[in-house]
Amino acid sequence: MEVAMFTIGCHLSVTKGFYHMARTATELGANTFQFFPRNPRGGAAKPLAKEDIRQLEEWMDTHGFGEILCHGAYTMNGASTKEEVREFARTAIREDLAKVSLLPRCLYNFHPGAHLKQGTAVAIPLIADMVNYAMDQEGLNTTVLFETMAGKGTEVGRTFEELAEIISRVERKDHVGVCLDTCHVYDGGYDIVNDLDGVLKRFDQIVGLEKLKAVHLNDDKNPLGSHKDRHEKIGEGTIGTEAFARIINHPAMRELPFFLETPNELPGYKKEIALLRSLRQEE
Known about the structure:
The chain is α/β, with parallel strands linked by helices.
C-alpha cells in the first residue's frame, strides 16, 4: 500500500522569487510553501518571470513537493459597503487567479470578507458573484479555497453553513473548496481539541469532506469560541501539541497539504516542521 506523503510547509516571502522560496522550504525541511501574490494589505502584484517558474517547477518535481498555496490579500472584501473596495477585490482576485494559473500545482486561498453589518444574506451573494467573475477566464483551472474564519467583527465564513452557502452559489463547483484554519475554527467555536471527529463529521454533513483541500496549522492564544483570531506557535497555545498530532494523522486530513502561519521567523518554522514530522505516524 502506498504511504501518503506528509505535505508540510510554512508561509514564505515572495520578494526573491518562487525558486528562492522553494529552496528555502527545502532547507526548512518542508515540501510546500504559502505566499502572498502582492502586499497582504493590497497594492500591485509583481509580474511573473518565466525562468523563475521553470526553476520552481523543476525544484518541486525533483524534491517531492506537494501543492503550494497562494493567499489572497487581506484587504479584499467583495462584500464591502463601498463600491471602490468591492471593485478592488474583484480586480485583485481575478488578477491573482490569472497569475496563479501559470504556477505548478498551486491552490488559491482567501478570506471570504466581512458583511459590515449588512448581514450575511447580503454579503454571501456578493462574495460568490466576485468569485464567479474572477474564475470566468479561459483556460483557468485553479482551485479557489474559502478560509474558515474566527468570527471576529462581521467576518463571513465563521460557520460551515456560511461556507456551504457561498459554495452553493459558485458556478464552477469543481474548482472550489475550503482551507481549514485550526486557530480560526477553534476561535469560531468548533472544538477540534476534544471532538475532532465530531467537527469533521459536521463539516462533512454541511460542506462535504471532498471540499476540504488544505489546512492552516496555527495554535491559538485564546480559548474556544473567543472570536479573536490570534495565532500562537504550535504547542504553546490552547489547542496544544496532542491535538495537532491528531489533526495531521486524521484519516480525513492526513493527505492534505498543511501550512504553518504561526508567529515565527525561519528558525522557528524549521523547529515546528521538525516537531510535526516527529508526530506524523505511518498508516
